[in-house]
Amino acid sequence: MVTPFLQLSYPIPTPKNPDSFPDSRYYETGPLDLCFMITLMAAMAVLRDVFRIYIFEPFAHWKLKRDLDARWAEKRRRAASANGTSNGHANGHASSYSKEEKHMKRSVLRFAEQGWSAIYYIWQFAFGLYIHINLPTKFADLSDLWTEYPHTTLAAPVKFFYLMEIACYMHQMLVLNAEARRKDHWQMFSHHVITIFLMLSSYYTNFTRIGCLIMVLMDWCDIWLPLAKMGRYLDIPHQIYDYAFAIFLVSWFITRHVLFLMVMRSTWSIDKIIELKWAPEEGHFFTKNFYWAFNGALAALQVLQCIWFYIVMRIAFRVVFHGETASDDRSDEEE
After folding, report:
1. Using the 8-state DSSP alphabet, how is residue 28 labeled?
2. Can you tell me the distance from the alpha carbon of 30 to that of 127, in angstroms, rounded to the nearest whole number?
3. Which end of the chain is more exposed for a tag (fewer CB within 10 A), N or C?
4. Residues 6+ apart with CB under 8 A from 301
5. Which residues contact 71 (CB under 8 A, 6 or more apart)?
6. Among 23-37, 88-102, 160-174, which stretch is predicted with the lowest mean pLDDT?
7. Tell me: the pLDDT tens digits for 253-263?
8. What's the DSSP call for residue 11?
9. Computed from CA positions of residues 115, 118, 120, 126, in that sequence, does the dihedral angle turn out positive or negative?
10. Per-position b or e across 279-294, b if 16+ CB within 10 A of its CB
11. pLDDT value at position 29?
């Protein structure tokens, strides 16, 4: 039976007077949703390779090869004007050209990887913002996250968005372990494990509204770091990608250390709003153990984000006070 792999499962009649998406189809959740997540993971793998191999890599190779040939043509003209070049110099130049070509190929691969990330996060943030605007959850009053819990029915856009986010992190987990390990491998691995746990557990226990809100916060600044890296790998004037890095830095602080902490503060007080009980027949899974596990995972995520913020602040310090260009110490180099 392929139907669960091709469409959302567990459709139900649209509730009377829903508080969001009144014209949408509605669904419940269940184990068959894993089938649709597998399809989304496969689609992401295909799209990633299509964009990487057929769009970003050819473009980056064309641009960087043109720049490399132009630089070496200029060097040869300068050498010729200095009464010719000895064989030793020619051999040295050939070796140096080969090294630059090797570096160029690495930059092409990195540019393509970051290009797919930029496209995905732009799309996913726009979709998540659309979800956030239509849900009755606002930063002015985060108690709306918990009002009328449990939220056992999901509008089609919300369910699709949630399953896509979980599938994305599962796909990233596979990619992370398939590619060459970089300096921040275990930090990224821990981040993905925590995030997948939070998303799966919130989906299972009907805490999807806080999940939608957190994903919007996370996805916004994840747009700017790939864009900054793309500029660096493409060897454009560093002021351009330094500005992108600055936007990333500011947006990271606001979304992950101000707004995210506001959300965490709300989660620490939900035991005063929602009754602690185990009632699966009602879709109510909020127990004391879940309360501590969920808040503990959010706290661990914040610790990782603090570590990364320290690293990006160190980069910013070098850019501002030492005139260096922005580079990502977390993952630019393999181990």
Report:
1. -
2. 23
3. N
4. 191, 194, 195, 198
5. none
6. 88-102
7. 999 999 999 99
8. E
9. negative
10. eeeebbbbeeebbeeb
11. 94
